[in-house]
Amino acid sequence: PADAPWWTRAVVYQVYPRSFQDSDGDGIGDLGGVLQRLDHLADLGVDVVWLSPVYPSPQADNGYDISDYQDVDPLFGTLEQLDELVAGLHARGVKLVMDLVVNHTSDEHPWFVESRSSPDSPKRDWYWWRPPRAGLAPGDPGAEPTNWHGFFSGSTWELDEASGEYYLHLFDRRQPDLNWENPEVRQAVYAMMRWWLDRGVDGFRMDVINLISKDVGPDGELHDGPPLPGLPYGDATASVVCGPRIHEFLQEMHREVFTGRREQLLLVGETPGATVEDALLFTDPARGELDMVFQFEHVGLDFEGSKFHPRPLRMRDLKASFGRWQTGLADVGWNSLYWDNHDQPRAVSRFGDDSPRHRRDSATCLATLLHLHRGTPYVYQGEEIGMANFPFTDLAQFRDVESINHQVQAVAHGADPDEVFAALRRMSRDNARTPVQWDASPSAGFTTGTPWLEVNPDHAEWNAAAQRDDPASVLAHHRRLIALRHEDPVVALGSFTMLLPDHDQVYAFTRGLDGDTLLVVCNLGAEEQDLAGLLPETVGAEVVLGNLPEDDPAVLRPWEARVLRLP
Ligand code: TEU
């Protein structure tokens, strides 16, 4: 344990700068704003800040479409302010991890502009250019080189009229995929990464990093995927998720960029579709790839097929999923733990109960559950104060490219607009992107101008200022959970054992290290539970931390969470 990596004891906080704090009144958060809020982060006690993209970008996908990897967009500030942020965080003992988006660039990146300029361009092969399907002319229905459906709806191929060829974009058409088969692309990315590390940043959160290797057969061809039910497209998964050279690429990156500096850094990959087996390979320290990955299983249990077809979550599925990840990475590798990020609806609304009666208790209960697992917990801005989904009333309120593309395409394919709205209201990424609620003032202290996305009207009651000095608040509870991980080696390094796997409401597990055992029990529902009956060993155990004032030890109240030390 003494030689365990530093990040086993660490908690990471994600800043989505557009929605964190505005300092210049344009209604969009910026680096000046982050600099104003450093004390909030220090006070919470987090060890690392992951900063979502601030690079120059046309903002088609809020900065995940980058047109220059080595600068800061004027919308967010300057490179000097980024240096100030590194210094300001380091002065508080906090590291800064940058978002690394290298599966794709913006279509306005000079590399793509040059690549598009002519089939003879020396950069043509930096992206995925393909002629129309054999026998069809450019633009013909079905002429796309493969039948793949994109993450943001529609085909993954966009026709370039000038050359009559298509380019690949797994996300929006303004996010062309880089061709990692080309060694020049890889070297350009590695050089850029070294430049950031030399500037003092402490690692990378690597956007969809498991999509960078595409399955080109020996013939250099990309192949159709199996048809998707109800859509005129096929599933690209088998060709793009954890492709044949993914581990080779990551090991090469590791050698070229992290050699000699790995110990101090945090390398976390975002890996949609990765299985436990994939994650083992990514995070086995001996392989020299990544420290940990964000897996997507637990955020894929409350919908059918695609995220805009929601269905209720079954507790058993959640336990089975988390349980498998805990067991699968018990001896080798490491888990990232998250409920929320800028792509997911708010956890208290999704997994908890955001009604006035249960909001505080369910937010603190969920946090306890997450932070007591084995792995590195990630807190997404606003989660620490129990921010909830936005009460959308109209399709026109959505700003996110994924939501808008889905809306347009689903309706075009005959979906009922009311159903589309209901799904977006529940699942849209914009739920996570409303401005952070700092105080009860009209724009919640986020901006003096007009916020780019409406502030949640509940901010009058739910805000950081109201919670700062309240020991019963969601914020104070997060502070305690973070401190507990720092102090207690069982929380950081203990083994994990799931209890009551089939119970529909109580989520319980133990963590053990060197004969010391913590038992964690969470009531994920509104009915009281007979704790003494379910887990007799809890009777008489010391309460290390709870989310409600201590009362009858034999009973678990609605949304109550307790961390107990077994004798
Ligand atoms: O997300 C990738 C991803 O797989 C999903 O979370 C995606 O955002 C969507 O929810 C699928 O339904 C990453 C970034 O986190 C996201 O913000 C970007 O839009 C995306 O990559 C493209 O860069």
From TrEMBL:
UniProt name for this protein: Alpha-glucosidase
UniProt cross-references to NCBIfam families, sorted A to Z: PRK10933.1
Boundaries of every Glycosyl hydrolase family 13 catalytic domain copy: 14-433
Cross-referenced Pfam families: Alpha-amylase (PF00128)
PANTHER family in alphabetical order: ALPHA-AMYLASE FAMILY MEMBER (PTHR10357), NEUTRAL AND BASIC AMINO ACID TRANSPORT PROTEIN RBAT (PTHR10357:SF179)
The family this protein is said to belong to: Belongs to the glycosyl hydrolase 13 family.
Domain of life where this protein originates: Bacteria
Entry-linked InterPro entries: GH, GH13_cat_dom, Glyco_hydro_b, O16G_dom_2
Organism: Geodermatophilus arenarius
